[in-house]
Every structure is written in structure tokens, then in C-alpha cells.
């Protein structure tokens, strides 16, 4: 298996909505974003699939070493072998890859966030930086597009957090700020035991409103000259915002099930952005 086949399989196997947004890109850009996305999946899988925190920390440390070595000499891992040839072309820097690792390191070190600024820092590392790199690969020409990419990354991550409340609870993690749980009188043990209540729904409506505001702010920040190049990000916004609305229609039944869109629907939403230019 070539490095390119490895990252393609990694991206496709994840079943992620990102895969559908990549389909319409020219081949060189698609190859670059697929390799970068596979890197993010590798790092994320360390935290989600390795049960021993010590082993997970060791693996993340290995990845830091691999990033450094890959930019100094020949990469060892197929993901880095696929990614590094695109680094100079699209301005992908070791510091950005290390920030993604930093974000996943936070998952090992922290299971609660006291307030939204603390959560926003986490979102910046695991999603904002990803958006920044992706925007460059898609063909960014305006510096203002970086602000759009960070804000869109926040919106997508907030949607992930809402969707995954129940799954995260099974891992002992709560990504809803503690002071906001207190505001709506939702106890941590209710989340961990996946107890659905009117108070929980009120809390989640508050989270959804914040996510919608982030989508609106992101779209307002995208400069007109870069709108065509940034269509893959707009596809992601369309898919994830549709998912968020499905969760809202389902009265936030996210504690005991995972709400998702079918592959056909994701492809349709992506195609609409590509063909019609609208979300």
C-alpha cells in the first residue's frame, strides 16, 4: 500500500462529512487535504482508541518526534510520507501539526472546562488550526480568510460537541462548560448517566444558539474573492449546520444516540454548494 492509498483509506473509512467536501477538489489539492485529514484522524484516534492514558501520551510524544523528523529528513509514517510533499506548496508548518497534537493532549489531561473561554482554547487547537491549514490548501488568497477559517472551525467543533455529548459521557468527558451546567441546573452526574431532562434541553438550546452564531459570523468573515476557492469549507458548514438542525428537531436526543445524516444526504448538500454556490 502506498502512502497515498493509506491516507485515502483512512479518510474514507472514517465516514466523516469532510470526505464529501473533498470530492470536488482538483487532484493536487484533494491529495493534500486528504493527507492532512488522515494526520488529524491518526492523532484523534490515539485519544479515542487507546484506553491507557500513559500509552496514549507516549504515542502523542512519538508523533511530535515524527513531525520534527519529517520536516528535517525522510518521514517514517505513511501519513507523513503523504503529507510532507505538499507542505511547501500549501504552507503547512510543523507548528500547526503540533498544535493539533496539543489539542488531543488536552483530552488526556482534562475532562472538564470551567467556562467557554477555556473550551474555546481547546476548539482552537483541534478545529481552528485545522480550518486554517485547510483554507490554505483550498486556495486562500485573502488574509481575512484565516479569521473565517478559525470561526468556522469553532462552529463545526461546537456542533461535534453537541452531537457527541452521550459518547463523550461514556468516556468520562464533558465538553459543556461547568459554569453553564450550573446556570441551567444540570449536574455533571446527570450527563455522565445520560439523563435527559427539560433542564438539559434548555442547556443544549443555549449551546446550539452559540454554534449558529459562530456559523453566521464565519460566513460574514469570508471575503468574496475567496468564496469560490473555499467551497469545501462551505460544504462542511452546510452539512454540519443541517445536522445541528436535525438535532434541534429531535429535541436534543444526543445522550443515548448519535444523530447523523445519510451519505446520500451529505453528498447532496455538498453538491448543492458546488453546483449552485449556496448553503
As a percent range, the share of strand residues is under 5%
Distance between the termini: 37 Å
Rounded mean pLDDT score: 94
Outline the biggest β-sheet: none
- Count of DSSP E strands? 0
* Low-pLDDT residue intervals, each spanning 5 or more residues: none
Summarize the amount of helix as a percent range: over 70%
The number of helical elements comes to: 14
Q: From N to C, what is the helix and strand string? A: HHHHHHHHHHHHHH
Structural class, please? Answer: mainly alpha
**What is the approximate shape?**
globular
Oligomer: single chain
Rounded to the nearest angstrom, the radius of gyration is: 18 Å
Description:
- The protein contains 14 helices and no strands.
- Helices cover 73% and strands 0% of the residues.
- It is mostly helical and 279 residues long.
- Helix 1 (3-13) crosses helix 5 (78-90), helix 8 (144-163) runs parallel beside helix 13 (231-249) and helix 12 (198-221) packs antiparallel against helix 13 (231-249).
- The radius of gyration is 18 Å and the shape is globular.
How is this fold's topology laid out?
Blueprint: H1 3-13, H2 18-22, H3 27-49, H4 53-72, H5 78-90, H6 94-109, H7 116-138, H8 144-163, H9 165-170, H10 178-183, H11 188-192, H12 198-221, H13 231-249, H14 263-276
Helix pairs in contact: 1-3, 1-5, 3-5, 3-6, 3-7, 4-6, 6-7, 7-8, 8-12, 8-13, 12-13, 13-14
Amino acid at each position: 500500500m502506498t502512502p497515498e492509498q493509506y491516507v485515502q483509506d483512512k479518510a474514507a473509512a472514517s465516514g466523516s462529512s469532510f470526505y464529501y467536501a473533498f470530492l470536488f477538489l482538483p487532484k493536487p489539492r484533494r491529495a493534500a487535504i486528504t493527507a492532512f485529514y488522515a494526520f488529524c484522524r491518526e492523532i484523534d484516534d490515539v485519544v479515542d482508541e487507546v484506553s491507557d492514558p500513559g500509552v496514549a501520551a507516549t504515542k502523542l510524544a512519538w508523533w511530535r518526534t515524527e513531525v520534527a523528523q519529517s520536516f528535517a529528513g525522510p518521514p517514517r509514517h505513511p501519513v507523513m510520507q503523504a503529507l510532507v510533499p505538499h507542505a511547501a506548496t500549501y504552507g503547512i508548518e510543523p507548528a500547526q501539526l503540533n498544535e493539533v497534537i496539543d489539542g488531543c493532549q488536552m483530552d488526556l489531561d482534562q475532562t472538564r472546562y470551567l467556562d467557554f473561554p477555556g473550551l474555546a482554547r481547546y476548539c482552537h487547537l483541534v478545529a481552528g488550526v485545522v480550518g486554517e491549514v485547510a483554507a490554505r490548501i483550498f486556495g486562500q488568497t485573502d488574509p481575512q480568510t484565516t479569521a473565517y477559517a478559525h470561526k468556522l472551525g469553532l462552529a463545526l467543533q461546537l456542533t461535534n460537541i453537541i452531537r457527541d455529548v452521550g459518547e463523550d459521557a461514556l468516556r468520562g468527558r464533558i465538553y459543556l462548560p461547568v459554569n453553564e451546567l450550573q446556570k441551567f441546573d444540570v449536574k455533571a452526574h446527570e450527563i455522565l448517566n445520560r439523563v435527559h431532562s427539560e433542564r438539559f434541553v434548555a442547556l443544549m438550546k443555549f449551546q446550539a444558539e452559540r454554534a449558529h452564531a459562530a456559523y453566521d459570523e464565519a460566513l460574514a468573515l469570508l471575503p468574496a474573492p475567496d468564496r469560490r476557492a473555499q467551497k469545501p469549507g462551505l460544504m462542511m458548514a452546510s452539512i454540519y449546520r443541517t445536522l445541528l438542525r436535525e438535532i434541534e428537531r429531535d429535541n436534543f436526543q444526543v445522550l443515548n444516540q448519535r444523530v447523523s445524516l445519510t451519505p446520500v444526504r451529505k453528498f447532496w448538500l455538498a453538491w448543492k454548494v458546488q453546483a449552485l454556490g449556496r448553503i
